[in-house]
Automatic annotation (TrEMBL):
Catalyzes ATP-dependent phosphorylation of adenosylcobinamide and addition of GMP to adenosylcobinamide phosphate. This is Adenosylcobinamide kinase. InterPro entries: CobU/CobP, P-loop_NTPase. Keywords: ATP-binding, Cobalamin biosynthesis, GTP-binding, Kinase, Nucleotide-binding, Nucleotidyltransferase, Transferase. It comes from the Bacteria. Pfam families: CobU. The lineage of its organism: Bacteria, Bacillati, Bacillota, Bacilli, Bacillales. It comes from Bacillus mesophilus. The active site is at H50 (gmp-histidine intermediate). Pathway: Cofactor biosynthesis; adenosylcobalamin biosynthesis; adenosylcobalamin from cob(II)yrinate a,c-diamide: step 5/7; Cofactor biosynthesis; adenosylcobalamin biosynthesis; adenosylcobalamin from cob(II)yrinate a,c-diamide: step 6/7.
């Protein structure tokens, strides 16, 4: 089962996604793929907040790029939360400080997600960055277009899709 959860910054999307996965997973089958890296004090604080919120039942995998490397480690009984696609996409697109081919990153990301099709539940969390005007710089615009394309394809193939605002999830698909 593929589930997509989106929302703005601090909307409650991660908390909702964690509850969704925890309600389905059996003990020992609860996994969290963390894509963020500590880059400054604010990110360190956000990562710590997310870690504190999860109970000891979670197995955490730190994977800021190349998510596909993890796919063989999971079984059909596993429930996985990827938090978040927004950061993973940025890490892949701007890897090594150089803008990568958006088409290649798109194909890599979609291929990687498909490798998790055998798990019991795969929940992908992503930020909704599309309510403001588009950015002026080329790199940010490319990133937003790539993320928008990824969102559309993931939701197209997802079993369920949710939009979270103010901590309130709204089912958009499923």
């Amino acid at each position: 089962m593929l589930v997509f959860v989106s929302g703005g910054a601090r909307s409650g999307k991660s908390t909702f996604a964690e509850q969704l996965v925890a309600n389905v997973a059996a003990p020992g089958n609860l996994h969290y793929i963390a894509t963020s890296e500590v880059t400054d004090a604010e990110m360190k604080s956000r990562i710590f907040h997310h870690q504190e919120r999860r109970t000891g039942d979670w197995t955490t995998w730190e994977q800021p790029t190349n998510m596909i490397e993890l796919a063989p480690k999971f079984s059909t009984d596993d429930c996985i939360l990827l938090d978040c696609l927004t950061i993973l996409t940025a890490n892949e697109l701007f890897h090594g400080g150089v803008i990568q081919s958006a088409n290649k990153v798109y194909e890599k990301m979609i291929h990687s997600i498909k490798q998790f099709h055998t798990v019991k539940m795969f929940v992908i969390v992503s930020n909704d960055l599309f309510s403001d005007k588009l950015p002026d710089d080329e790199g940010s615009l490319l990133y937003m277009k790539l993320l928008g394309s990824l969102h559309q394809e993931i939701v197209r193939t997802a079993d369920y899709a949710y939009q979270v605002n103010y901590g309130i999830p709204k089912k958009m698909k499923g």
